[in-house]
Amino acid sequence: GENVEQHPSTLSVQEGDSAVIKCTYSDSASNYFPWYKQELGKGPQLIIDIRSNVGEKKDQRIAVTLNKTAKHFSLHITETQPEDSAVYFCAASDSGGGADGLTFGKGTHLIIQP
Amino acid sequence: EADIYQTPRYLVIGTGKKITLECSQTMGHDKMYWYQQDPGMELHLIHYSYGVNSTEKGDLSSESTVSRIRTEHFPLTLESARPSHTSQYLCASTGGAGVKAFFGQGTRLTVV
């Protein structure tokens, strides 16, 4: 089955700096890669996703890149703000996005230092 | 905002009690899931359903049971709660291939 590794487990950056979270996956059949943000006391919320036919996708300060050859994908957050502090999860799927096919990374606790 | 709801948000209960965690979605999604989230934040799939009368066990063994009598409703039951069941339980749903997964707000269960 699929295995998703996520690094780092904790990331502390100064407000205004960029943050990068990296994930690798093992199953070359995976074709859908979502990122979730979980704030304290809440459920994970989908913030951005990318499919295997695309190398990069941006949404305001957030971007995701995918390298299919190397089987890794990354989340980039620019101009970080205090409200970006949360736990971020990457995931991979070969079933088009349904949660039964989603394999999650272990999460990254992002801390934005004022 | 996704239309998927979990109740209660917080529950403290004594050992041996029977409990049911509720999960409902108004999006008409066929697939629904329960995850257990440990203190380290890792997500573990414990149950899922492809539709009415369908239930499957997930990757992590759990003493809980689930039912799917109606499309919109996917309750999780613990017949006899124990302190080891203390955890955060998250419900999710998706409408099928190519559709994104949405999570509820979670239920924080504490068994004393």
Radius of gyration of chain A: 13 Å
Tertiary shape of chain B: globular
Mean pLDDT of chain A: 93
Structural class of chain B: mainly beta
Helix content of chain A: under 10%
What spatial form of chain A do the alpha-carbon principal axes imply? globular
Task: Kindly report the oligomeric state of this protein.
Answer: heterodimer
Quickly count the helices of chain B. 0
For the record, give the distance between the C-alpha atoms at the N and C termini of chain A, rounded to a whole number.
41 Å
Alpha-beta classification of chain A: mainly beta
Radius of gyration of chain B from CA coordinates: 13 Å
Strand content of chain B: over 45%
- Element order of chain A: H for helix, E for strand: EEEEEEEEEEE
The low-confidence runs of chain B, each spanning 5 or more residues with pLDDT under 50, are none
- Quantity of strands of chain A, as a count: 11
Largest sheet of chain B: 7 strands, mixed
Structure commentary:
With 114 residues, chain A is mainly beta. Chain A has strands at 4-7, 10-14, 19-25, 32-38, 45-51, 56-59, 62-67, 72-77, 86-92, 103-104, 108-113. Chain B is globular, with a radius of gyration of 13 Å. The model of chain B has no long low-confidence stretch (mean pLDDT 92). Helices cover 0% and strands 46% of the residues of chain B. Chain B is built from no helices and eleven strands. In chain B, strand 4 and strand 5 form a beta hairpin. Chain B is an all-beta fold. The interface between A and B is medium-sized, with 23 and 26 residues.
